[in-house]
């Protein structure tokens, strides 16, 4: 499936300065002979480290980073600075991004401990919701893919450092080897921080980006279109903004998110211009591990109860609700249909289960399949995004109506973000329960699925609940 990456074995490259230097020199020599440019990717096991602490110490605002953590699986990755990057505006972005990854891998020499979790070259990807930024006001391009200069990961107790560097016949190996060495030294001194849950002393005062009555009247208007069979489902979003007396602290906010939502994917991605998109998403778009594909239908929501009895009551109502089940069903049918388009077979349980988060619960149907016929991760993403969990049905009509109803740009909200490795393993989530942070300003987004039977007040209440998820973690 993937262009095979040449692999060599060197155990001590991060332990022995001389060996690192010799290895890079040998790489350069082969390149001079062949007149090429190559990425050299070195993976080695590390002492226990906290990737969030490393992000805190070494990420710089004007450089790209990507952070990813699933606390209940003991998994975290921090990707910092770029060895190679690709940005694209406009349509065709998924296939162009996949081409970039394939050609980069075809020019990569991978070495070191390549059999550990998260070892070897990984590409980190951030897409916007729409493939075209019509108003030109999105802080992120339609597609950003990068191979980081540094990658720090842990899966349970197994921690790995990956250093990626570009070498060509003009490369100054002395300087490259010295830089890698210095950075490793810096990280060894700063791989841990005593984090604690922090909260905002002053209560943040959110402002609606657009009047919330607009949201309710959009729901009423959408319900009319649903009645006249123009479409059957649309997901409408609302955004709020908060100003803080001091710049928001990205890493402390992420630490809060990983503590409060251990069963969500906590993420942060930067645009390299000082703006970050952070969140704690419950919605997995794809996971591919050794050609096994998992995707989730997640739609239909209810609050959590304050007592066990109230919680069970809300769960029961959600599971039995014909309207919520219909809203959920649209997502399943869409995903199944799209997987079939790619020739991928699938399995799923006949009735939805529940995904219970700390403040909200959702109807949830995991769908599994097998990757066959050379289908690549971004091909699957191109088929699936956006699902009716964040757009609607039929998709094209829902998308044009979202543009009409929502007076703000979704940018990266509700769009795919995740990673792809050199073996074709991959994981992407949908960027919901999220906020765009720009120094002391944060814009938070949340949406709700509208189908026949939706009540504008209840949909607004659901959105407020979803917005709270992030608001309470921001510091
Ligand atoms: C669109 C969002 O969430 C989506 C909408 C849901 C719903 O309407 O029930 C549930 C989960 C998500 O698929 C969001 O959180 O912003």
Care to describe what's here?
- It is a single chain.
- By secondary structure, the protein is of the alpha+beta class.
- It has a 22-stranded mixed β-sheet that branches.
- A hairpin with a 3-residue loop joins strand 16 and strand 17.
- It is globular.
- It has two domains: about 5-190, no CATH class; about 205-470, Anthranilate synthase (4-Layer Sandwich), CATH 3.60.120.
- Helix content is about 30%, strand content about 35%.
- Helix 3 (about 95-105) runs antiparallel to helix 9 and helix 5 (about 210-225) crosses helix 11 (about 455-470).
- The protein is built from eleven helices and 22 strands.
- The longest helix has 20 residues, at about 320-340.
- The two termini are about 45 Å apart.
- The model has no long low-confidence stretch (mean pLDDT about 90).
- Bound molecules: the ligand C=C(O[C@@H]1C=C(C(=O)O)C=C[C@H]1O)C(=O)O.
- The site of ligand ISJ has 17 residues, from strand 14 and strand 22.
């Amino acid at each position: 499936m993937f262009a095979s990456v040449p692999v060599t074995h060197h155990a001590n490259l991060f332990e022995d300065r001389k060996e690192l230097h010799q290895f890079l020199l040998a790489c350069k020599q082969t390149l001079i002979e062949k007149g090429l440019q190559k990425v050299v990717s070195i993976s080695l096991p590390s002492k226990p480290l906290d990737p969030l602490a490393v992000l805190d110490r070494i990420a710089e605002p004007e450089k790209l980073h990507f952070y990813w953590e699933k606390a209940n699986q003991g998994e975290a990755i921090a990707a910092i600075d770029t060895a190679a990057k690709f940005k694209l505006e406009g349509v065709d972005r998924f296939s162009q991004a996949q081409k970039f990854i394939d050609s980069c891998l075809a020019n990569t020499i991978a070495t070191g401990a390549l059999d550990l979790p998260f070892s070897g070259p990984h590409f980190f990807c951030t897409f916007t919701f729409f493939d075209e930024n019509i108003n030109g006001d999105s802080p992120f391009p339609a597609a950003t893919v990068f191979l980081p200069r540094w990658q720090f990961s842990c899966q349970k107790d197994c921690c790995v450092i990956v250093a990626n560097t570009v070498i060509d016949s003009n490369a100054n190996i002395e300087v490259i080897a010295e830089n890698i060495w210095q950075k490793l030294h810096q990280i060894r001194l700063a791989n841990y921080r005593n984090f604690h849950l922090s909260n905002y002393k002053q209560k943040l005062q959110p402002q609606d980006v657009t009047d919330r009555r607009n949201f309710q009247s959009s729901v009423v208007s959408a319900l009319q279109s649903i009645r006249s069979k123009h479409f059957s489902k649309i997901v409408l979003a609302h955004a709020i903004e908060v100003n803080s007396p001091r710049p928001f602290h990205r890493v402390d906010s992420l630490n809060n998110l990983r503590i409060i939502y251990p069963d969500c994917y906590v993420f942060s991605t930067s645009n390299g211009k000082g703006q970050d998109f952070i969140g704690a998403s419950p919605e997995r778009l794809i996971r591919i591990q050794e050609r096994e594909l998992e995707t989730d239908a997640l739609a239909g929501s209810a609050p959590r109860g304050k007592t066990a009895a109230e919680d069970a009551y809300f769960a029961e109502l959600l599971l039995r609700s014909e309207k919520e089940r219909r809203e959920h069903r649209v997502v399943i049918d869409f995903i199944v249909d799209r997987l079939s388009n790619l020739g991928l077979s699938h399995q799923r349980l006949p009735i939805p289960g529940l995904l219970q988060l700390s403040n909200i619960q959702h109807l949830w149907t995991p769908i599994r399949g097998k990757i066959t016929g050379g289908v690549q991760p971004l091909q699957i993403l191109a088929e699936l995004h956006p699902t009716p969990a964040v757009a609607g049905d039929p998709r094209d009509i829902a998308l044009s109506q979202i543009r009409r109803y929502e007076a703000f740009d979704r940018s990266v909200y509700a769009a795919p973000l995740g990673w792809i490795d050199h073996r074709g393993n991959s994981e992407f989530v949908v960027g919901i329960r999220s906020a765009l942070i720009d120094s002391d300003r944060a814009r938070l987004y949340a949406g709700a699925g509208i189908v026949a039977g939706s009540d504008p007040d209840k949909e607004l209440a659901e959105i407020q609940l979803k917005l709270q998820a992030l608001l309470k973690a921001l510091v």
